[in-house]
Amino acid sequence: MSGSSIVPLMVVVASFWTISTDAIMFKLQPNTQKCLREELRKNHLMVGEFEVTHVPGQKVDYIVTDSKREILSQNTDIDKGRFTVVVESHDSYEICFRSTVPPEIRGVPQDVSFNSKLDEEGKGYETMGEAQKMKPMEIELKKLEVLSESIVQEFGEMRSREIQMSDTNESTNSRVLYLSIFSMCCLLCLSIWQVLYLRKYFKSRKLIE
Question: FRET label pair with 16: which of 9, 103, 132, 149, CA 20 to 30 Å apart?
């Protein structure tokens, strides 16, 4: 593999706040890997749709992993399709596309189109509306209700992480303070020892009384 890069998957971030997402497109150079990374919440259902331009002799693979490098989904020699991943914990996830070209072939860049959808988009509101005989306005209100709950949950998790980071910072500051005090004490002791040693040395040489 001659190269690798990571691109922030902004469409996934946007999907926390909107009902629809836009596809992200990029060029995948021969024998390189490009990854899309995002942090997702617990119990999310992520649906990924991809399409890769076909080039004879070249193939593209994809793999979805979490922060522990556990494989959640993968496929080889893809051209067009989709995958579904259930996010079991709040974690950072990567979707990587890798190009493989045989040595005897001169590779060319391939266009990759990727679109991600979260579970807010896959709840089947239209089917639910028909089953419960809901009006179009009521379906839209239901979508807004679910979206609002998702936003509130996200803010709650952000607040929890902020508190955790604040506690970590306070603990780190205390440790740094103790280390600074210890360092100052060591320097003070070393300075006193140097003064006593030099005084004794000069006395032995009868340079001072």
Answer: 132
The pLDDT, as a whole number, for residue 146 is 66
Tell me, yes or no, whether 108 lies in a domain: yes
CATH number of the domain that 82 lies in? 2.60.120.680
- Of 183 and 153, the structure prediction assigns the larger pLDDT to 183
Q: Residue 141 and residue 130: Cα distance in Å, rounded?
A: 15
How many structural domains comprise the chain?
1
Q: Does some domain include residue 102?
A: yes
What's the distance, Cα to Cα, between the start and end of the chain in Å? 75
> Is 114 inside a domain boundary?
yes
Q: Can you say whether the dihedral through the CA atoms of 182, 185, 189, 190 is positive or negative?
A: positive
Asked if the model's pLDDT at residue 34 lies above 70, the reply is yes
77 alpha carbon, distance to own chain's centre: 25
Per-range mean pLDDT, top range of 6-10, 20-24, 126-130? 20-24
Mean pLDDT, the chain, rounded, equals 78
C-alpha atoms less than 13 angstroms from C-alpha of 104 in its C-beta half-sphere:
2
Residues 6+ apart with CB under 8 A from 24: 7, 9, 10, 11, 36, 113, 114, 115
Q: How far is CA 22 from the centre of its chain?
A: 19
More confident residue, 44 or 182: 182
Strands (E), the chain: 3-8, 24-28, 32-40, 44-52, 59-65, 71-75, 80-87, 91-100, 110-117
pLDDT of residue 149: 72
